[in-house]
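Supplementary notes for students who missed Thursday's class. We covered one full example, reproduced here. Read the sequence, then the structure, then the short commentary at the end.
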Amino acid sequence: MALIALTGGIASGKSTIARRLAEHGAVIVDADAIVRDVQSAGSPVLARIADEFGPDVLDEDGGLDRAALGALVFSDDAARARLNAIVHPAVRAESAERFAAALAADPDAVVVYDVPLLVEARVDDPWDLIVVAHAPAPLRMDRLVALRGLTPDAARSRIAAQVDDRARLALADVVIDTAGSLEETHAQTDALWDRLRATGSSGV
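Structure (token representation):
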């Protein structure tokens, strides 16, 4: 099995790369999806979040009000650190289970962990390859405003809450430049897949 970390800043095109790799046959483990799962209504993680940040982070159905929580943590480094201390261990445990399940199903699987916070939380894991999706911050801000409906201030805050591009690029074994067309991103991703299949899980 090859275990690949796919990271990048918000709106950097990670999901586009992950979808393309999935089309080729990679097993995608989505960190954001795991976060949603471990924070689901009634979960121990959500109970701890409510204890830490108050009942206003819950919606009327007892689920997580993501907008309310985001408003508290995206501009407050200390609050974000407290949240991460609750969420990251649960995500780490669940992702390890999903990696193991993929290996059990197919010992030759290429498993891609789509993880925004690699630098912040998972840099020391035993990755066979670290792939960074990269687009300049001003372009990512434009995408957040145009495609996700954020205000410019909100987009700027989301980008500032993550590590800067230099920290991610310093870790990269492969950089996929997503500033161009979709076809250009796909071409780079296809080349990565060809490399993975040509070298196998032991030599990526």
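Commentary. Residues 77-105 form the longest helix (29 residues). The beta strands are 2-8, 27-30, 110-114, 129-134, 174-177. If anything here is unclear, bring it to office hours.
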